[in-house]
Amino acid sequence: MSKKNKHKNNPDKAIFALSQHIFDFLSEHRGKQFNHKQIASAVGANHGNNKNLVLEALYNMVDTGKIMEGQKGKFYLEGQPPSIEIEGRIQVTQRGFAFVMTEQVKEDIFIERNNLLNALDGDTVAVKLKKKRSGGKPEGVVTGVVHRAHETLVGIVEINKKFAFVRPSNQRIHVDIYVPLEHLGQAKNGDKVLVRLTDWPVGAQSPFGRIVEVFGKPGTHKAEMHAIMAEFNLPVKFPKEVEDFANKLTDNITPAEIAKRRDFRDTLTFTIDPYDAKDFDDALSVKFLRDDKEHGKIWEIGVHIADVSYYVKPHTVLDKDAFERATSVYLVDRVVPMLPEILSNQICSLRPHEDKFTYSVVFDMTEDARILHTWYGRTVIHSDKRFTYEEAQEIIETGTGNHHQEVLLLDKMAKIMRKARLKQGALELHSQEVKFKLDENGKPLGVFMKVQKDSNRLIEEFMLLANKAVASL
């Protein structure tokens, strides 16, 4: 039974008396919404069983049309629901109108261009809902900016005799930024620049800004790459304190730490990565264990990941900076790393012929890829060989080359696992990845499509296997 039906037309005198008090209270506060607890307190019925009587009275009044029920059990007197101010993230279209997304309203709220106030795309804004048209979608008016999404913007500067404007590269930023001539810095007309927003005076059509960096002429490689990094807040350099902290770290593999780990340094181990990779963060190891009457040949297959946590301790400046960066970002001609190069490319990179600390998932497996036992833990490894995908692929296709028996075994297992995974309903995505060939100045010389071959899938399957095993813990 619904609340409305449960409480409908209750003749109790106490309910009638309460209804009069409630009506008087809501009459004094027309247009405002209150929940039943607030109403009970206002009419002096917030003790004992009176709260239940208030609910009965409220739903009686709703059913008889004396009052209205608004959002989430709130009540108000007559007419349309009052204006509600909410917060949400605004998305401005290229045509200038916008939508605000919020969990407080099911549908996105439409904002006309002249109701944006001084909000920019991505800002968190306060919005007042307008009276909803019959059958229409929610509409609103921006009443304030709670948080700016952009402190700086990338754009092209246009300089006039008395002032300048920066035309943002982001087409969702619907206004130009006004820059007084004294805040131009070294910028020249037509330069691609980074402008910092300084103010947006009441009544001004555009925000005010100060140019803080000049990238150069649009279209040049250096200008465009630096502009991309600035636009997406990709830090070019590490703070000095982070670099200093990282430079004090050493890659000494001490006997005391080795004693705490499982030692794989005598087990054949190798990496398989792109030919232009500079850091190697995962490796595979292969070791024959025994012949088994029931299962045939049993192999120990290790999936090893660089143990970055050994060097990046919680709450250090290194940890805090890595948390802010979240991940490494790969651009056409460079990588913006999550960790300083001494860690990502040296200490934590599983380079060949060097002892390295790792975290591993180790499987005892049959040659038909059945898992008999799984072990997890911290390890130390020594990579014997660095394969490129092309080198590993050649071994798979020709059956010859360094460590070909082990590579062919892993390829066989990977294909069995992949077939079983797809049969179980795994999602298979086919997409083409573009690769650019650049000259020494970063200028593109050609474009080609990267092709996923067996060597790529080999690594993919064992990484998926390790992740699945860890997720099941």
Name the shape in a single word: extended
Instruction: Tell me about the largest β-sheet.
Output: 7 strands, mixed
User: What fraction of residues sit in β-strands?
Assistant: 25-35%
Q: Tell me which oligomeric state these chains represent.
A: single chain
Total strand segments: 24
Widest β-sheet, arrangement of strands: 14-21-20-17-16-15-22
| Number of DSSP helical runs | 12
The Cα radius of gyration reads 33 Å
**Overall SS class:** alpha+beta
Mean pLDDT comes to: 88
Query: Terminal Cα separation, in Å?
Result: 44 Å
The residue fraction in helices comes out at: 25-40%
Description:
The protein is of the alpha+beta class and 473 residues long. It is built from 12 helices and 24 strands. The strands form 6 sheets. A 7-stranded mixed sheet has the order 14-21-20-17-16-15-22. Strands 6-5-4-7-8 form a 5-stranded antiparallel sheet, with no helix packed on it. A 5-stranded antiparallel sheet has the order 11-10-9-12-13. The model is unreliable at 1-11 (pLDDT under 50).
In short:
With 473 residues, this protein is α+β, with helices and mostly antiparallel strands. 27% of the residues lie in helices and 31% in strands.
Set down the secondary structure blueprint:
Layout (H helix, E strand, L loop, with lengths): L2 H5 L5 H16 L5 E2 H7 L7 H14 L4 E2 L4 E3 L8 E8 L5 E4 L7 E3 L12 E6 L10 E8 L4 E8 L3 E6 L8 E4 L11 E8 L8 E9 L4 H11 L8 H8 L7 H4 L3 E2 L4 E6 L8 E11 L3 E11 L10 H9 L3 E2 L4 E2 L4 H7 L7 E12 L4 E12 L2 E4 H10 L5 H20 L9 E6 L5 E7 L3 H18 L2
Parallel strand pairs: 14-21, 15-22
Antiparallel strand pairs: 1-3, 2-3, 4-5, 4-7, 5-6, 7-8, 9-10, 9-12, 10-11, 12-13, 15-16, 16-17, 17-20, 18-19, 20-21, 23-24
Helix pairs in contact: 2-4, 3-4, 11-12
